[in-house]
Amino acid sequence: MPTPDPPEPAHPAAPPADPGPPGHLLPEPAARRTMRLSILEGSFATVFINWTSGSVLTGYALHLGATPTALGLIASVPLLGQAVSPLAAWLVGRRGRRKGVAVATALIGRGLWLLAAALPLLPVPDEARSALLVAIVALSSLFIAANGALWTAWMGDVVPWKERGRYFGLRTGVLGIVGTAANLAAGAWLDRVQAPLSFQAVLLTAVTSGLVAAAILTRHDEPPLGSARLAMRSTFSLPMSDPTFRRLLLFAVYWSFAVMVSSPFVLPYFLNHLHMTYVQVAVWSAISAVSALVLAPTWGRLADRVGNRPVLAVSTFLAGTLLPLTWMLAAPGHLWPIWLSGVVDALVWSAINPGIFNLSLATTPRENRAAFIAVFSALTGVAGFLGGLVSGPLLDLYRALSPAATGWTAYHTLFTTSAVLRMLAWTLLRRVPEDGAWRTRELLSRHLRRLTLPRPPLRWPARRR
């Protein structure tokens, strides 16, 4: 199940990074067949992703006795896996083919979760089980992140450029429906069946679904790779020599760290402090998913008109103010702010995720863009991992400092810390250039003026006599 501040999925919803026609296209019948198969493959992959993350993984870790530090690591090590993206791109470029490596990484990364399901049966001390879960998540994430990077480049060569928006919009919608249904089914099961059997059954089903997705991937057609290849050193040095890219990267690295300071503990807060059931968490997730379907097109139209930078400035500020506030206003038995937070979650992230993606395209050169995107993914992933790494010790520190017998908890202090960091992100964003973008002040002043100016009186047309 998705977390309130999710890392990028292994199969991104947005179109792949290459903005122009690929050098080698499949024949149209083969491309259409692969596009249809990709929606089916993505549906099975979505079940695997949702059932090995979010509240399923958080609940399983809590059952195994995970400490706050372990919970922070479990949530953040998938981001560390993004660091292999440049290496995966370079290796496949040297090999000249993607399918074999993509299928192998999918099989290994998903198959490792069989070990996670077997943890309660292993003859190891109880305190070691959560540490083993962290290790399994970390190792699996390396292969899954590599698979995601290869899939992005692969589908970028399959889907015709003029159809990418329409195709990936359809694919995202179908996968969103599948993910919501999977979340509700898992929540109902976990609430009714005793642990650890409940978690083991969900994880085994997730692995099966993931392996089916890998089998469907073998049926995809693959265009040959282009001839242009970068040396390993150039894969890193070329993007870092671009001053515009460095400004965007500084903002994105800071933002990833700020988000992950609190993100690993939103779901533990829901489950442990608010005593929400797994079905209630799934309903929260469904509220967010449905709201995003409505709000995302509105943000998209606004970004097309005023630019991505002012949209990001507003949405990141809301993610640091309104979103944490809705979490902290809730209390056990007083959950209406959580249902509101589902809408706010969709409001901010349906602007932030596409905004960062689109701004990364607008500020990087077309030539060798794959290297830029790989380095961007790797460094933001490392930053998110470091944020999650410090989140657990911070929560322990805040627990020691929190006053007893009050409504204020260590969770609230942690959310406040992340909120302050998030609110300051716009100071780095304003240094990122974007052609034709409005200033944030201009965007706010024009829309506030529309809200505050008196409306003209309604006049009825004169009757004909």
Automatic annotation (TrEMBL):
Q: Does the keyword Translocase apply?
A: no
Pro residues: bias regions: 1-24
InterPro entries attached to this UniProt entry: MFS, MFS_dom, MFS_trans_sf, Sugar_transport-like
PROSITE patterns attached to this UniProt entry: MFS (PS50850)
Give the Gene Ontology MF terms in alphabetical order: transmembrane transporter activity
The membrane spanning regions, by residue number, are 42-63, 69-93, 100-119, 131-156, 168-190, 196-217, 248-271, 277-299, 311-330, 336-359, 371-390, 410-429
Keywords of the record, alphabetical order, are: Membrane, Transmembrane, Transmembrane helix
Q: Which residues form a coiled coil?
A: none
Extract the ranges annotated as region (Disordered): 1-28
Major facilitator superfamily (MFS) profile domain boundaries = 244-465
* UniProt keyword Transmembrane helix present: yes
What PANTHER family does this protein map onto? INTEGRAL MEMBRANE TRANSPORT PROTEIN-RELATED, MAJOR FACILITATOR SUPERFAMILY (MFS) PROFILE DOMAIN-CONTAINING PROTEIN
Its name, as the record gives it, is MFS transporter
Per the UniProt record, the source organism is Deinococcus aquiradiocola
Recite the lineage of the species. Bacteria, Thermotogati, Deinococcota, Deinococci, Deinococcales
